[in-house]
Amino acid sequence: QDGHLALEASPAQRAAVLNSAMAAPTGKRQPPSRSRSPARRSPVGGGYREPKQGDVNKLSGQKYSKRFFEILATRKRLPCWEMRREVVDMVSNNQSSVLIGETGSGKTTQVPQMLMDAGFTARGSIAVTQPRR
Q1: For residue 10, what pLDDT is reported?
Q2: In three state form, how does the secondary structure of 5-35 look?
């Protein structure tokens, strides 16, 4: 089962892309697979909790710096930030995923961080592939 998600699309367009990814060849929607329940595939559940001043980074054991929060503010302005929950859900619920977005939308730099924040590195590595130019 593959998932597809388009950044910079309206909610209706995103729903159409997601629904078309689940459509059977006859055009009828396939029922969700019982063997791939989101609860079983999701690495940690609960989702993203935004760091606050004074919080400790669980990877480094150090408090988050002023620079971290400056970078976080920049990340929040990228198109993919709004869709972080959908991206994590798509990867959690599908064997393979295709993410489509404009240049500069954060696909390569931000999505791996979103997946790491969601706990995917507890199961292994995160790999991002790109077309050859």
Answers
A1: 53
A2: EECCCCHHHHHHHHHHHCECCCCCECCCCHH
